[in-house]
Amino acid sequence: MEHPYRGRQPHPHTQRSSSHRIGATSTMTVTSSVFTDSDPYPDPDNIEPLDFLVVAPHPDDAELGMGGTIMRMIDEGMRVGVLDLTSGEPTPHGSLDIRKRETARATEIMKLTWRGNAGLTNRAVEATLPAREHIASFFRCLRPRWLFAPYHEDAHPDHVAATQLVEAARFHSKLSKTAMPGPRHHPQRIYYYFCIHLRLAVQPSWIVDISEQWDRKLESIRAYESQFITGRDPGPPSLTDRFRDDAAYWGRLIDRQYGEPFATKEPLAMTSLRDLI
Ligand SMILES: [Zn+2]
Predict the structure, then answer these.
(1) Mapping DSSP to helix (H, G, I), strand (E, B) and coil, where does residue 207 land?
(2) 91 Cα to the center of ligand 1, angstroms
(3) Measured between alpha carbons, how far is 21 from 187 in angstroms, rounded to an integer?
(4) Greater confidence, 129 or 24?
(5) What are the extents of the domains in the chain?
(6) What is the whole-number distance in angstroms between the Cα of residue 55 and the centre of ligand 1?
(7) Minimum mean pLDDT among 39-48, 196-205, 213-222, 266-275: which range?
(8) How remote is the CA of residue 28 from the centroid of ligand 1, in Å?
């Protein structure tokens, strides 16, 4: 949530492998020669395409913004991944090791198909050309049908930059005659989840019923103890009470207990009206 700057530190997931450069054979796991703190790109020959990939500026944003929907879709048999752009550190009560453990715990609760970290620098995310190619390389190797990015209006510069980066990398991902690993791939749609730092009265495009997933969503949020519990005002309301209140508000708008809102720039395409509440 808060990311006071104390300088760049090595990423906990670091798997430096200077011999694994872009352009290595397709059966090898490769990693960017620029973003050395990044996890390696998954081998496209050894991973089935994802149904959707959630791109999160920091570990915890995917859980906060759409953890219920992620778990609902996994419950229904979809293959879902999360790509965290940065380590999220430093923060007042976190450390690289703590965040790594917390992220692993949340990943286990959500039963994600895949999770990786792109090794960009916290509080310094920018949609540069190297960053675009780097994120597009993950898209090409994971081949998600849809992408989920943070909502485009936010106070946190990393979130705003992440949205721009996902949109640019989506286009880059389909380019031919490039050194990027993996096959050309163009995710069909980008949708936007809300994990915003502004007190906005947002108007979502749709809301997903997450009533059955709420308890597990809260558990996944609580996994990030250093961010949402340690040092926080115990309330009432506590920070987690606020998250529940938000989910109940969105649920009430669709006559359900809990909900999660989403936005889309392009019109929604539907094959049926069956799932409309
Ligand atoms: Zn964030």
Answers:
(1) strand
(2) 11
(3) 24
(4) 129
(5) 44-261
(6) 11
(7) 196-205
(8) 32
